[in-house]
Design a protein that fits this description.
The chain contains twelve helices and no strands. The chain has about 290 residues and is mainly α. The protein has one domain. Helix 2 packs antiparallel against helix 3. The protein starts with 8 loop residues before the first helix and ends with a helix.
Length: about 290
């Protein structure tokens, strides 16, 4: 259970909830597809967590100087072999869930679209593993932010929306961008917290490339853009008719206030958990708005 890192799971399903929130207005909305999408996203996240534990562990990035929570390989709770087995098992489960989801949602009728989603499934498994595993792990070359944005944001929101409706909607793009930016923000907080250890371990995250001050400014940009796309994703008409819906923005600006006060890298750790949970709450609130009021 420790290697699965349960605290990361709410963020992994935020995009799925958001995409299904928009889709809930469709008369053919399926709770079964929704729940299966959630399970699939959790399975992908567990692959990533096992792989990160393994990859950072064997590279020596997880060491006594790291400021984040201790991991299973680092603490000797699981061997490298056990983690590799965990990655394989989680990958097989996630592929089984994803194929079942694709078949249920598309009813086996749209062959090219089904093949596209299967290709996305393979890409998601590859990205989850390749983030820290191997000589060319993209998490070690500043590309982690891009992949997190794509998979946690656009793929998660627009993909889950399409599986429910077999169509696209501009709101899915806007809110997919919102969730993607929030997710990158969580990663950036993690990287700002561990910037010194990552630099010493030759893990070249974007925070390492930017340096402490520019990484913080980058974080401000991520959060402000996320708020802007959230506004457009909800729709100006809805906001004008329901101005209290803007209260959903308050946690974002409070978060920025907290980030601005931080001077020591270790202080980013509690904000990382807060932002991940806030992203989940935003997506769940959107689901309630769409499902209950529209």
């Amino acid at each position: 259970m420790t290697a699965a890192r349960l605290r990361t799971l709410p963020l992994s399903v935020a995009g799925i909830i958001c995409g299904n929130a928009i889709a809930s207005r469709d008369e053919h909305f399926s709770i079964t597809i929704f729940l299966l999408s959630i399970l699939t996203a959790i399975a992908f996240q567990i692959i990533s967590n096992f792989a990160n534990d393994y990859g950072d562990g064997i590279k020596g990035t997880d060491n006594a100087d790291r400021l984040g929570p201790g991991r299973t390989f680092q603490k000797g709770l699981l061997s490298a072999q056990a983690l590799k087995k965990g990655i394989v098992i989680a990958a097989l489960i996630s592929i089984l869930l994803a194929v079942s989801l694709i078949y249920l949602a598309l009813r086996g009728e749209e062959l090219l679209v089904s093949l596209f989603f299967i290709a996305l499934t393979v890409a998601a498994v590859w990205a989850a593993v390749k983030y820290t595993v191997g000589h060319n792990a993209f998490g070690y070359s500043g590309l982690g932010d891009l992949f997190v944005f794509l998979f946690f944001g656009w793929v998660s929101v627009m993909g889950s929306y399409y599986l429910q409706t077999q169509s696209f909607h501009l709101s899915a793009l806007f809110l997919g961008t919102t969730i993607g930016l929030f997710s990158v923000g969580v990663l950036n907080l993690n990287n700002m917290r561990d910037v010194e250890n990552d630099k010493n371990s030759n893990k070249k995250t974007l925070a390492v490339y930017l340096g402490k001050q520019k990484a913080k400014k980058y974080h401000y940009i991520l959060m402000i853009l996320a708020a802007l796309f959230l506004f457009f994703g909800m729709g100006t008409t809805w906001v004008n008719e329901n101005p209290l819906s803007l209260l959903i923005m308050l946690p974002i600006f409070f978060h920025l206030y907290q980030v601005a006060k931080i001077e020591e890298p270790k202080a980013y750790d509690p904000l990382l958990k807060q932002l991940a949970l806030s992203t989940f709450i935003v997506s769940f609130t959107l689901f309630l708005i769409y499902y209950c009021f529209q």
